[in-house]
Design goal:
Blueprint (H helix, E strand, L loop, with lengths): L3 H18 L14 H23 L6 H25 L12 H56 L3 H14 L3 H19 L6 E2 H19 L3 E6 L7 E3 L3 H12 L8 E8 L4 E7 L12 H13 L5 E5 L2 E7 L1 E2 L1 H6 L1
Parallel strand pairs: 2-4
Antiparallel strand pairs: 1-3, 3-8, 4-5, 5-7, 6-7
Length: 339
């Protein structure tokens, strides 16, 4: 979006360009002599070039710098031709310029147009680079802050983890039935994985799925037949990578916002979109009538991690009675070697 302060800067720069016209020249009575007509035309020309250059930088960020410069130069030349024809349509206003030959005036307008375009383009470029540098610096600081907060939160959750693991181990040993023992093992796996999640920005899909299966086991013990899970992950994707606990966040999000009951079982499907190399987490859409307001922190967290690691985006889609989130799978160095 264009910024108001940049408009004021453009007016100032355009006035500066116009003022140059009034600088005394050693040769009088030439086309380069100071005149209010020349100053006015220079101001309008410079300001239009400023607006176009600003549009090219802020509205067409994906266009290459070379193409932007060509577009701005072409625009300036077009303005030069328009200005030239206006002068010759209104000779009574611009009579000072009518004393020179047609070719000389046209050549001057084109040369001045190129110079004005180059000058305004360069100034806009400096402003844009400065603003982008500031924006990237702020984003880096925000990411660093979020990372520190996440680490702090993780430390707060790690209250005597060894004591808890010892307690779980004891509980598993004293449990009488196999179901309880298995539940304790799965819970230990989940807890251990969550403690280690912040140690690496990426994990292998096979490790993430081991954790996910343990987490799903706990959920199915809780909801029983009210929760249906379908997994279809081909082994060839084992060495692809993704941010840790991304799947768990999306599963938790689905359970938080949807009804999970024997009357309305919630179905969650996790599979691979092989055409786009995306991991898809899909759930039936049966929203709760009353649910605490969502902050969107989970999805936002996953998206920010992907942008930081790969510049790829997650895809969120809601169609009829389904809510679908697709997250990119990143090729690891091991996967590249195998391919």
């Amino acid at each position: 979006m264009w910024k108001q302060k940049n408009i004021f800067t453009g007016i100032f720069i355009s006035l500066f360009v116009a003022a140059i016209v009034f600088i005394p020249r050693p040769i009088s009575k030439t086309i380069f002599s100071p005149s209010w007509e020349g100053g006015f035309i220079s101001f309008i020309h410079a300001f239009l070039c400023w607006l176009f250059s600003q549009w090219s930088f802020y509205s067409r960020k994906n266009t290459s710098l070379f193409l932007k410069s060509l577009l701005c130069g072409a625009f300036s030349i077009v303005i030069s031709f328009i200005g030239f024809y206006i002068i010759y349509f209104f000779p009574e206003i611009f009579k000072n310029l009518h004393q020179f030959s047609l070719k000389k005036v046209l050549l001057f307008f084109i040369i001045r147009g190129i110079i004005v375009a180059a000058f305004t383009f360069f100034i806009i470029y400096l402003i844009f680079v400065s603003e982008e540098s500031s924006r990237l610096k702020r984003e880096a600081e925000n990411i660093k802050k979020d990372h520190l907060e996440a680490r702090l939160y993780a430390l707060q959750q790690q209250i005597s983890p060894h004591f808890l693991f010892n307690a779980l181990s004891t509980l598993r040993n004293i449990a009488q039935d196999k179901t309880t023992k298995n539940y304790v093992v799965q819970f230990s796996n989940v807890f251990r994985y969550l403690l280690d999640a912040n140690n690496s920005p990426l994990v292998f899909l096979k490790d993430e799925m081991v954790f996910t299966k343990s987490y799903l086991h706990i959920l199915q013990e809780r909801f029983e037949n009210a929760l249906n899970i379908h997994l279809d992950i081909p082994e060839k994707y084992n060495l692809y990578q993704l941010p840790p606990i991304a799947i768990q966040i999306l599963i938790e999000n689905a359970i938080k916002h949807n009804i999970v009951s024997l009357e309305e079982p919630l179905t969650i499907s996790i599979f691979i979109d092989e055409n786009n190399e995306m991991l898809v987490i899909e759930n039936t859409l049966q929203l709760k009538i009353s649910v605490e307001e969502s902050t969107g922190t989970g999805l936002k967290n996953i998206q920010e991690r992907y942008l930081l690691l790969s510049q790829k985006k997650i895809h969120i889609e809601q169609i009829k009675n389904k809510f679908i989130v697709s997250i990119p799978l990143l090729k690891s160095s091991y996967e590249n070697i195998n391919n």
